[in-house]
Design a protein that fits this description.
CATH superfamily: Vaccinia Virus protein VP39
Bound molecules: S-adenosylmethionine
Distance between the termini: 39 Å
CATH class: Alpha Beta
Number of helices: 7
Shape: globular
Helix content: 25-40%
Oligomer: single chain
Number of strands: 7
Number of domains: 1
Radius of gyration: 17 Å
CATH topology: Rossmann fold
Length: 237
């Protein structure tokens, strides 16, 4: 039972990993993208048990990105790997609109053909991760997660023992989990959490973005502000 009256898409703060879902007010084109294009591109939850069936064609692999922000990394990975089924998740409406803007020409929000191999998930990534079968995902990306630097917010960090077990459950043996962060508190936290878990090989991070990783907006801001990103590649045992 809950007496939370803030609406169905706002979860109690203790369970949420993210901040606001809306920033500046949306323009009419953005409203149309969310109302008309997003429903056509949304990963169908009723296909979660057989995720390959959620794409327009049978994918060679399935990759999952948590919190794509402006979507530049998802878009680049999708374009570079057209045979891979890519599930891109983000809860922030302005971020969803950024990626949708790249995918849907103006005026074609309702009619533009949707890419076969890209699906969006506009709820908490954990909801879909929980619904996916064991060992069904080939790669997972967590690029510059919200750092939640205050100790009392540590439960909201995506790299958290509970979520590490959740990610481990859906990844295939040998699958890779890529994580990047520029926040020193989060970096130390990732090292501690991953040193204490049994599911992944967790070698030390790279200090330069490795080959095959694509830049993100958040990373560019971090580097411009003089922060040093770290790039981890964890491999499912
Ligand atoms: C700091 S931003 C980084 C965005 C992007 N990856 C980048 O590097 O530019 C983190 C993003 O993760 C999203 N996010 C946080 N928790 C999430 C969750 N549980 N499911 C989906 N998205 C989430 C937030 O809305 C936010 O846009």
């Amino acid at each position: 039972m809950t007496d939370d009256v803030r609406g169905p898409d706002v979860k109690p703060a203790a369970e949420r990993l993210y901040g606001r879902q809306r920033g500046h007010p949306l323009r009419p084109r953005q409203e149309r993208l969310l109302d008309e294009a997003l429903p056509r591109l949304r990963f169908p939850l009723d296909k979660a048990a057989t995720p390959a069936a959620g794409f327009g064609e049978t994918p060679s692999q399935i990759w999952f990105e948590v919190g794509f922000g402006g979507g530049e990394h998802s878009f680049a990975q999708h374009n570079a790997h057209p045979d891979v089924g890519y599930i891109a998740s983000e809860v922030f409406h302005n971020g969803l609109c950024s990626l949708l803007t790249r995918l849907v020409p103006v005026g074609q929000e309702f009619t533009a053909p949707i890419p076969d191999m890209l699906r969006l998930w506009d709820d908490d990534a954990r909801v879909l991760l929980k619904a996916l079968p064991h060992a069904s995902i080939d790669r997972l990306f967590l690029m510059f997660p919200d750092p939640w630097p205050k100790g009392r917010h540590a439960k909201r960090r995506f790299v958290h023992p509970q979520n590490v077990a959740l990610v481990a459950r859906v990844l295939k043996p040998g699958a890779v989990w890529r994580v990047a962060s520029d926040d020193p508190t989060y970096q130390a936290w990732v090292e501690d959490v991953m040193a204490a878990q049994p599911f992944f090989d967790a070698p030390p991070p790279a200090t330069e973005r490795p080959e095959g990783w694509f830049p993100t907006r958040y990373e560019a801001k971090a580097i411009a502000a003089g922060r040093q990103p770290l790039y981890w590649t964890f491999t499912r045992r």
